[in-house]
Structures are given as structure tokens and as C-alpha cells.
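Support case: iron/sulfur cluster complex. Customer-provided input:
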Amino acid sequence: MPPERESLEFDVLFVGAGPAGLAGSIHLANLVAAHNSAAGDGGRKIPELNIAVIEKAAEVGAHGISGGVMDPRGMAELMPDWRAQGCPVESEVTGDDVMFLTAGAALKFPIVPPPLQNHGNFVVSLGNVTRWMAEQAEKRGINVFPGFPAQKPLLDGNKLLGVRCADTGMGRNGEPKGQYQPGPDLLSKVTALCEGPRGTITKILDKQLGLSQGCDPQVYATGVKEVWEMPAGRVRKGYVMHTMGYPLPSDTFGGGFVYGMDGDRWSVGMVTGLDYSNPNTNPHQMLQLMKTHPTVKAMLEGGKMVSYGAKAIPEGGLFAMPRMYFDGGLLCGDSGSWLNGMRLKGIHLGIKSGMLAAETIFEGILKGDFSAATLSSYDRRFKGSWAHSELYGVRNFHQGFRNGLFAGLANSGLQMFTGGGFGDQHNSTPGHAHMKRLRDYPAGRAPVQEFKPDGVLTFDRLTDVFSSGTTHEEDQPCHLVVLDTEVCATKCREEYGNPCQNFCPAQVYEMEENPVRHRLELKINASNCVHCKTCDIMDPYQIIDWTTPEGGGGPDYKNL
Ligand code: SF4
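Agent response - structure generated as follows:
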């Protein structure tokens, strides 16, 4: 007899222990404590709540990755004494530069554009910040459960009742093994989805509840990052450098960064817009090429790469924000597109979204009602907050780049001085639809940037994946569900040349010769997956479904 599926009940469930989920849980516990203390002995107190935060990683922070420069506004609102309480930061920002790179030269901007000025901000490791936030949540009696991957929504009609977690102990063909354990059902009066970009439950609910109806399609970028340990004295702690230009072609959105961390370490990364046209675009390779630029190379000379990771970034802004409330649930953080693309910052907005969700849930607790009608006040709170003003001011940012880098820069300048530009510019095309077919290029060949890693400054993807600490149980159903692999072997091969081989920053997808059928067929190295979600987003046929693997699988990011 296989073991029975367990059911656990909570008052409030946060799915995802990133900045949004943890901030939401902490703020909710604070609100309840303040309410009960104000109620005194004779007042109406709220009975002790069972609040839980679940996380798919083996430990909180292991899947956390950001550039990362944190605007402290959100954190300071959540916890005014956050620094005294020991929130880990690498450094306060000590200087900013913006560079335009050509293949051999660097042009420093004479002044740093205001959105990229970082005075008063902090270089952080998001993983370390969330580890500390989880401790703060636990001090308030919140249950933080790592190793719980939410796989399916539990619904009664259109009302979210909670989530079902992924089973463990299933073999690769879906058969239960000796240690099979059905994933528990986590039931909750209200559930806040804080899953990060392209969240699993969010994606299912979006389709079922039409959350994105009437919105611009979301556009994403893929951020790829390494941490480098340097000889003592070689890193300017708190220094922030942003780059534009090389190696990205001018029709591809994105840019690079180098941030000075504590302990003589550089955080070096590259963001590549997932609305590029060339199917040979390779976000991992973009970072490797950027490091070969003389300016960046000189900074890294003599150092050692010690950590690697990748993540999708929701860049669509205000017009791509879905409806963020429904019966029994809310969307927060990257799951709801709370990211300022112009500033390349989302941690402060993620925290703010969690806090506004907590205030909305608190209202629901007082009313005893978590219907969409009650939870819709989340939207009103957002519209009355600084988060909305900030996102409104950059509402046209990504759209301004649709005609390339130089038009985008001109547009950004205009938007800076006019509070977002004149009128509203909408985007009607999802990023993957910008990819050109091979037949659109002369002789049917899309340009390829030749590149051979040297193993010292530049690396292949497998070396980098090793530095991400990624592991998965090998004998489990493949969590990357390709709905029709025949498309890969035929139509996609012919039309796009199998771009999954290029866009995945962990080399999960390979086309391998089938000696019987005499053709190339898809091979999926699922255990390399760093959970960035790029494939789910950028596949031109939209037939890759990223699903949650067994709990605890995935990267083990250090200081990312
Ligand atoms: Fe990212 Fe998909 Fe590759 Fe995993 S398989 S690393 S989610 S692109």
C-alpha cells in the first residue's frame, strides 16, 4: 500500500521564501502582534495564526540570486532597524560608473543617469539576505519549510484552497520507488504566490483565471552571473559599474554589471533580453564575451570564479502586471512583475509587494473573508503606494528599446525627464515571437559569435553549472516537460536550428544523433537545470513546460 497523501492546514501560506514571501510573513506577524497589543486585555484579539512560508530549495537562499544592488527603501519600511538587526550587506555603494563598450574600447558616461545612480543603496547577496529574513520570520513564530516545491494549485472552482507539493521517490517513468512519498496538500485560508518569475502555480492560475487578460504580454530577460574571488586589495568594495554595448548586438536589449562585494570579490553578470531575434543568441556566452573586454578582463585578472547562477527577470513593467488578486490568493514580487527594469532593481519592490499583501490579508482576517472582492484592496493599496509611482515613471522603459539600443537610450532619456515619456506605449508581442526563422537570414544562416572558453577567464556552461552547486535526484520524472519532441526533431530544427541549445544557460538541451532514425533528436540533461525558467519563456513554440522537480533539487547558490 503506498503511503497516503498528507494534508496540512494553515491560516496563511506564502509560496516562495524570496524577499516578497518572507517580507509578507514578517509584516503580517507584526500587524497581528501590534493589533493584539493595542487591543489590550478586554479588546478583540486575533487568535494565534498558523503562518507558513514554503520554499522549493533545500534551504532558504539556495535558489536566491540577484545582481544585486538593493535599494533599502523596502527593507527599511519592513524593519526600520534592519542594519542594527544584522541584515547582511556586502557594502554600501561607494561609487558608480556607466560604460559604453565596443569590442576594444570603453567610453565612460560623463554623468551617471539618475536611474543608475546608486548612492545610498547596498551591494548584497540576495541569498544571504533571504537567509537572514527567514531567521527573522522564525523569531516571530512563522513556520519556514524549505524542500517543499509547490507543484499544483488546489482549487474549488476558481477559488484557491492551497497547493499540492511534488511527490518524492518516483522513478524516471513515473513509477513509485521504495521511498515514495506523495507530496503533501497544503491547505490555507489564503495563499500568497511569491514564486519568482514564471512561477509554476502562477502560470497555471494565469491560464485558468485569465489573470493576464487585457495586459501587455510579459517580457523577460535572462540574468547570468558569476562571483569572482580576487587577490587582496583588488576589489573596490561597493563599486557599481553598469555596461551597455559589447557583446550584445544593438538590436538586443540588455547590459552588463560588475559590483564590488566584501571580501575581495566581484559580482559580474550580464542581462540579455528574451525578445532577441537571432536564434543563436546565447545568454551564457554573452557573459563570457563581456569578460573578455579589456576593461572587465583587467578587473578579473588574477582572480578565480567561485560561484555561478542564472535567473529570468520580468522586464514588462506596469503594463504587463497581471491581476494580482483572486478568490483565496494574491500574487507578489516577480510573480506579479514588481520590477523596475530601468533601475534593474526588484528587491525593494518585492518586499513592498509582500507588505501590501500582508496588509490585505490582515484586512481579510479582520473581516473573516478572503474573497476576490476583499483581496482586491491589494490593487488599491498598490496604486496608492510609492511602488506604483516608481513603476509608473518607467512604464514605457522596455517598449522604448523595440527599435534597438540607441532608440532605447534616447527614449530612456526622454522618460527620465518627463516622468515616463508622453502617453503610454504598449507592447503586443511576447518576447519569443521576436525570434527570426533561419530562412529570414541570407543563405538560411543566422550569425554565430565564435567563442572558445579558455578555462581561466571564460568557461563553458558545464564548468559554470558545477560552480552553481546544482544537483537533482537523477531517477525521477523529467521536470522539463516538452509537449511534443517531434517538433524539436523536425519543425524547430528546420525553422530555428533548435535554439534551446543556445538559450539555456546550463546546457540542459542537446540535439543528439539517433542512429536508428538517422536524425538529431532532443536529449534533456535535466539534472543540470539551474531553475532559471528561460526555456519555458523563450521556446518559440511554447511547448516546454518547466515543472517542479523533487523538493531540494536545483542549485545550491553561494553568495549570489
Ligand atoms: Fe533554465 Fe530551462 Fe535550462 Fe533549466 S532547463 S537552466 S530552467 S533554461
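Residues 480, 504-506, 508, 529-535, 546 surround iron/sulfur cluster (CB under 6 Å).

Case will auto-close in a few days if no follow-up is received.
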